[in-house]
Structure formats: C-alpha cells, structure tokens
Fold:
Amino acid sequence: MSVIPEPGYLEAAVDALALSTDRSDRRTCALPARWARRLQAAAVGLAFPAVLLLLWELSARYGWLPAQILPDPRLVVETIQEFVASGELLDDTRISLMRVAQGFLFGGLAGLLLGVAMGLWPRFQAYVDPLFLAVSQVPTLGWMPLLILLVGIDEELKVIIIAWSAFIPVTLNTYRGIRAVPARYREVGQVLTFGPWSTLTKIVLPAALPTIFVGIREGLANSWQTLVAAELFASSEGLGYLMAWGRQLFQLDLVIMAMIAVGAIGLLFNWGLGSIERRLRRWQVAS
Amino acid sequence: MTVTAVALRPSVGSTHWRAVALPIVLLLAWEFAAHAGIGDARFLPSIESVAARGWTEIVDGQLLLDIAMSLTRDIAGFIIAALIGVPVGLALGLSRFVERVFGPTFSAYRQIALFAWVPLISLWFGTGEEAKIAFVALAALNPIVFNSAEGARSIPVQYREVARVLTFDRWQLLRYVALPGAFPSIVTGLHLGLIYAWLATVGAEFFLNLGPGLGGRINEGRELFQMDLLLLCVLLLGVIGVLLNKLAGLAETRLLAWQKR
Structure:
C-alpha cells in the first residue's frame, strides 16, 4: 500500500479538465502598479521581524528573560553606535573581508584551473577525480587542527582554509559545466578550424559559464562561512573574533552586533552574485 | 546487482587502476618520507604508526565511544531538523500568506553564516549536549526548509486547480498533491541536511568543547601534538562522511523509485 498515489493522475486530470496552461499574463502590469505591489510585499515581509522586535523590547522591559539570555535591544543599538563611532566595527569588517578576498581569489583560481583541466582531459580527470572526491569529503573544519600544526594560527591558516572551502565547489562545478557542453558545439569549432585556445575561450567556457558561476557563488558563500569559523577558532581581530570575545565576556550585545554584520555581508554577497547570475542567464538565452 | 554488471565491463578495470594510482603514489611518497626522515617525525608519522594508533584506540574502546557520540549528535540533530523543517518548508511553499509573511525573514536568516550562531547557542544552551544538538539541528534545518519549500512551490498550478475542482480539503491537498509533488525535492533537502549535519557535528565538537567525540579528539591531537591521533581522526571524519553520504544517496534512489511505482 503506497501512501502516494499514481504519479500520472494529476496530468491526466489537467488534460481532462482542459485547464489553462498559459500563465504569461502576470508580468504585463504597469510600472507604478508593480512598484506598489513591491512596496506592499516589503511591508508584509517586515511585519514579522517587527513583531519579533516588539516582543524582544517587551521582554527586556518586563524582564521575561534574564539579560544574559536576551539583552535589551537598546543596549545592542548603543553598542553598535559605539563600535561604529570608534571605527572598531569597520576595522574588523575590513580585516574579515580582506581575508575572504584573498582566500576566495586563490581558491577560486585554483578551482577554475583544476576544473578546466579535469573537464578538458578525461584521462587527467580519471587520475585526479577519485582523490579529489575523497579529500573533499572531510568537512573543511576537520582540516583546521592539522593546518594549525603545520602553518600556525596566523593569516596563512585563515587564507588557506578559506581558499580550500572555495576551491571544492568551484572545481566541481567548473568540471561539470565543461563536461556538459554538448559535443556538437566543439564540432562547430572544428569546422571553423579553431585552435584549442579559441575552442576553450570562444566555445567551451561561454557554454559552461552558468554552471561555473553556480560554483563561484557557492564558493563565496563557503568562504564566508569558513571565515567566521576560522576567526572563532583562532584570531585576534575580525568579525568572528568579535563574536568569540563577546561570548567570553558574556556580552550578548557584542555577539548580536557581530551576527548582524555577518548576516548583512552574507546578504550583500548573495544579492550581488545573484543579480550577476540572472544577467548571465538572460544573456545566454538571448544569444 | 549493479555492482557486478559494472565490474563485467572491460574498460572499468583500467579506470579503477587510474583511480587508485595517484593515492598510491602519494601514500608511498609519504611512507618513504617518513622512513627516510625527510620531514620532522612529529609532523609526519609513518602510516603504520597511524594504523597502530587506530588499533590501540579501538582496543581501548575509546575511539568507538567517540564515533558513537558523534553519530548520536549528528542523527539527533538531523531528526529534529527534519521534523521541523519539512512542515515549515511545505507551509512556505504552499501558502502565499505564509510565504509573504515569513519568507523574507527566512531568506535573511539563511544569510547568517552557520558558525555565527555558535556564540549565541553557547550562551543560551551552555556547552553541553543540548547545545551541540541544537547547533546540528540548526545547520540541517536550512537545506531541508529551503528544498521542501522549493518542491512545494514547483508543483504546477494546474494540479492545485485540479484539487480545487475536486474540492479537496487541506489534508487531502497535502496528501495527494503537495506531498507527492514535493517529494523528490524534500528527499534532496534531507540528503543535503545530512551532509550539513555532519559538518556541524564536527564544528560543534570543536567550538563547544566538552565530552567525547571525534572533533574533541582532533583538538586533543592538536593540543598534545599527536599527529597520529590527528590524522586518524581526520581520516575517520572523511570515511564517516562518505558512508553517510552513500547511505543517504541509496535511501534517496530507493525512496524515489518507491514513489514512482
């Protein structure tokens, strides 16, 4: 006895009832109306956070929860103002961003190279892929103690571990994207007597670009995650350090401030790369 | 069944040879370097000393206890995440109201790097078992909610119109339209959740350091400078990760095949 009914029945029902399948009339509303709708959506979306904030405020005012569990929101705001005014928050953010930039750059470039090599030469891939897959199965954090013994707890550690966390998704997606390029495309290159370089830059890479970009996006998200972990583990500056410090001092306002900063930057990364990705998709469909 | 079928293909033999070539070369180089004294012996223990360490740890029973503890946390957190995540995801994907009210908050929450929750969790739950399981659950929750919601959202509108024509109530809609339609996506989310849970188990044991577990042992290896213990535990992390992944993959294909029947 299966709980889930026959898969085909819904399709059959749609046919039998001759339901409309055309839903293209959604996007054709006027611009002001669309803006109004967006505004409304934003207002509805902000309602829940607003309720949470209100509850937080009430809880602080009437002491529902001890301050060690949930500090007064005004304290958090004050702390933020204080750290912004003194420039500490900006300094720590800059340091964290620099680490991510370095690690992501190294890891991403290495991943692109290895991914292209694995995608272009099946023989090379046959040698390297199993080892790569096996090594990539160890959670990134698992390497950290080993790396600490090998390179110490300074900048190298953070850059290497961040690079590693970006390297894996970039390699995997680059290689998959290139392997998925239809053979016909390359045949076109042969017909046009393209050399290997032109085939790569004019045919293979553009065709694989959307998949590669998925890897880049995932790699950046991983880098940011790993940065926080690495800074929590061993550092004396940066947003992660700010958190670890707040934890040790039992200053939840500091912890929450750092979390807000981490979340905001993650949101910016995701939004920026997301909009580039959408543009890439559109460009690909158009061409 | 499929294993024998694959093994019969002639080309596979050479592929297997290629697959193990590089690891074998690296292992030989390692062993050679360890014996020739090229690296510092503290940094580069020989393979047999790592294996010997593994054997004594197993005979002690300590290692098995660590593995059992880590796995228990992993599974407990995962189950909690699945029980919460699937209904929440389905609600987000099925109801426009829920999506509009809670969707933006969930998207914003997803952007906070997972490890940023560690200080908060440790201040709320301490550093004991509850804190670790809470962290693992939080890690697995994300992909489960996200994929369940995606699955429910991707159900063709016409199917829901059919449900309306057939005057399904909420429960019937869930059972005959939403669950089957979102099922593949839910299973994918659970699979991803399991991977994240394992990552978080290691993280929890690093950052919320108390009691036995593989992550704790790795830290111990680092603090006591025992490279053999460290390498052994890193290896185990990888092997257990692969096994969990394989099991989840197997369950995924089974479940999807069972649904298609």
